[in-house]
Amino acid sequence: MIHLTFPDNSVRDFAAGTTGAEIAAGISKSLAKKAVAVALDGALADLSEPITGDARLEIVTRDDPRALELIRHDAAHVMAEAVQELWPGTQVTIGPVIENGFYYDFKRDEPFTPEDLPVIEKKMREIIQRGDAFTKEVWSREEAKRFFLERGETYKVELVDAIPAGEDVKIYRQGDWLDLCRGPHMASTRQIGDSFKLMKVAGAYWRGDSDNEMLTRIYGTAWANDAELKAYLHMLEEAEKRDHRRLGREMDLFHFQEEGPGVVFWHAKGWSLFQSLVSYMRRRLAEDYDEVNAPQILDSSLWETSGHWGWYKENMFSVQCADTEAEDTRLFALKPMNCPGHVQIFKHGLKSYRDLPLRMAEFGAVHRYEPSGAMHGLMRVRGFTQDDAHIFCTEEQMAEECLKINDLILSVYEDFGFHEIVVKLSTRPEKRVGSDELWDHAESVMEKVLQQIADQSGGRIKTDILPGEGAFYGPKFEYTLRDAIGREWQCGTTQVDFNLPERFGAFYVDKDGEKKTPVMIHRAICGSMERFLGILIENFAGHFPLWLAPQQVIVTTITSEADEYAREVLAEMKAAGLRADIDLRNEKINYKVREHSLAKVPVIVVCGKREAEERTVNIRRLGSKHQTPMALAEAVSSLAEEAVAPDLRPAAE
RNA sequence: GCCGGUAUAGCUCAGCUGGUAGAGCACCUGAUUUGUAAUCAGGGGGUCGCGGGUUCGAAUCCUGCUGCCGGCACCA
Prior knowledge:
By secondary structure, the chain is an alpha+beta fold. Helices cover 34% and strands 27% of the residues. Strand 9 and strand 10 form a beta hairpin.
């Protein structure tokens, strides 16, 4: 006998080996029909799985949020069956559930095309209609390997070999088709339903390793019902509308062109955004940091000393005089980072322990030769500007400096409206420099700091650990923010470095007169200004808060009789420091409103004959269909107040 | 870098199986003086990404390169 506890806390006894399906059937016919799985102590399991011990039991129906994972997983299996039915000889490899859907990686000599997707979908619907039951079998390793080998499924043989000793080799069967899988699955393919769609084909390396063969991946999305599917597809459309590359063009912010892959042409409005961001950051740094500027090109020998030439040569640009006859034939590197330059500044002149912590900031333009396939609008470019800083400090000051940086980063994000932040600690990677003792120490300090960050936020800031993701020279914190449509972006970083100061022989004179190597902390808040602006564009969908908007106000008229007054209004707006422009074109107000709305100008100030007589203005805000009449003076002062950057605003009462 | 797709006017796109380019918007000109998301009429604009090839003839077919797009890998 086993004791099963139901969601209502009632406990009932069953014979050991009873299945979830039997229990559901015992409760009601309709439940048996709706059930797709059971949860035993919260873990999903097959309905047909014999239950062997006491547990909390829930019958999971198709509308349970947990069923979604099963729907997607089952859909992946059905897709694999469909593909093998359509193109025999195609090998199946792995097919996991991912956020919003699933994929399956196939090995086929002929690649799939987008036109294949509807064909596969159709076949999937057939299989789903058949409604074959998913059944589990446990095979011996040898049996499984022999079976897949006979079928030419060599990838599956590798997967069987990868199953840890002592774990069962499980096979799930649906009709005539079967797959190696750890489960669980729903009762039948019919439970997948019809709310799925194949989205795209893409290449993917076998086991995620670029040294391996490339397979073809088919991505799909699947939902519990059509409404959810539709909502998801709609969300994708909305995300596309706020794509920064599209808005960059539509709002005339920047462009790229063929001669400069991965480098940005900032147009006036985009550059205004850029400058607003830099000015804001400068104000935030003014109190604690010294801003410097290190050279753009430096002899490659310096990069050899720093280690970059060895580690990242394939990602660096080199420069030389274009004239082969030039006297100086040395090879220079376009800086990919600011740190070596900052160490040179630190080294210039003797530093005392009294100078520490020394915080050196730079809005440094760096260039990195990114792989061609990696570039993506402003998000991944070859030339970008870092809001970089290096803090030279003592071992003892390290933890406090990390916390100070943390406060600054969180407060900056807050000012841009990002409230959901995750701080992740990345620990030692396989390829690294420095002794294990050094890493042990640095990681333990940072673990404590991470805990403190979590504690002092009162649980608001989430933390995480990314094993092996640290930089080669030290562990790091990565700051990830969540945007308006729920996407996560890693922006800020704090990295401890016990490599570079030593390599360059940087030191300070300590209290006892001895030379000591300082600890160096690299930190960035926005990371790349270009990328951060890309994130802001998408986050706000181009609808910037007033303090950031490149053009804050457009003054426009209804008839030319108001032109004179409109000029006066413009002058007052400008005098109040607003970025304002005027539109006196002989066009209908509808036309002008539409145009400026599409250009995403936050404030349209309309002046007609009436306003001119009354010395008022009519304000229409972007996104609103309403207008607010206001006295001119009042409009100017309220807009000017709204346009003050968050860091300059008087603290809230 | 790898796999696949793609490149036609400033933008969005059409151009079937090869017969020397077309629309809408934008732009320019004229008319219209207009009350909150497109006033009307006229006009100009493209060596069809770049280089080879096939062909009597290439935007269209083949091929190389480049950019871009979607993934994968990478991201100091």
